[in-house]
Amino acid sequence: MLTPFVRSDAVGAILAETFLHPGAELSISEVARRAGVLPAVAHREIGRLIEAGVLRDRRDGNNRLVTVNRDHPLYLPMDEIIQTTYGPVPVLRELLDGQPGIQEAFIYGSWAARRSGQPGAFPHDIDVMLIGDVDVDTVVNVETAARDRLGVVVNIHRNSAQAWQHRVGNPFLETVASRPRIPLDLFKEAAHD
Question: What is the pTM of this model?
Answer without folding.
Answer: 0.84
